[in-house]
Design brief:
mainly alpha; 220 residues
Length: 220
């Protein structure tokens, strides 16, 4: 089984892979794909950090610290972002899969496989953000693919802005993928499936907004 090809086929051809996944008794390569995708997530976050995206707080110190100290802090930032990407990848694969598993009788490996098609959409959004940040200086909050920009016009509440900035067309795409696969795999009422999918994603968006709102770099 070519795992990379299967991931991309499942991402764009969900009808084909839904039947294949539902009818298969054994799903090969689950743990290998999990490991590789989590590593890929760390790599994407590390590349973002390499280009200095999200390190605005560090740039402000450029004139107040030595060049050596700046380079050291930049290196630590990249390492921290890479670890964050690994944690992010693990959470985005395991948390929704375990949540859906507790609410259905679908095999956990099949639910983990569904998340293999979801995580790449988030990483794709992260990659697209690189040229936007470098050429236009757009941060995640100001991404044209999310609701953060609109939120900045209608409210001054930072938490609401971060929350709406977490909702992008890529997140909607991920919800669509999860919904399509779960509806077929679980056989549950489509409204129940949609409620399950939106529920877990809403929790993740709220948590992401809370983390951004706290701004740990200022605390540290």
């Amino acid at each position: 089984m070519n795992n990379r090809v299967e991931v991309f086929r499942g991402l764009f051809n969900y009808k084909y892979f839904t039947y294949k996944l539902r009818d298969s008794e054994h799903v090969p390569g689950v743990w290998k794909n999990t490991f590789l995708l989590i590593l890929l997530s760390g790599l994407v976050f590390g590349i973002n950090a390499y280009f200095g995206i999200g390190s605005e707080y560090l740039s402000k110190k450029l004139t107040s610290i030595s060049r050596e100290e700046y380079e050291m802090q930049k290196l630590l930032f990249m390492a921290g972002q890479t670890i964050l990407g690994i944690v992010f990848g693990a959470i985005m694969i395991f948390l929704p899969a375990l949540f859906f598993w507790t609410l259905s009788d679908v095999d956990l490996k099949k639910l983990l496989t569904v998340q293999f098609f979801v995580l790449p959409t988030f990483l794709f959004e992260k990659i697209i953000g690189i040229p936007l940040a470098l050429s236009l200086g757009l941060t995640q909050v100001s991404s044209p693919f999310a609701l953060g920009t609109i939120a900045q016009y209608i409210t001054g509440n930072d938490f609401i802005i971060y929350f709406l900035a977490s909702i992008s067309i890529f997140k909607v795409w991920a919800i669509f993928i999860e919904y399509k696969y779960l509806k077929m795999l679980t056989g549950k009422n489509p409204k129940i499936v949609l409620l399950m999918v939106i529920g877990i994603n809403l929790i993740i968006w709220l948590f992401a907004a809370l983390v951004s709102f706290i701004q740990f770099d200022k605390i540290l």
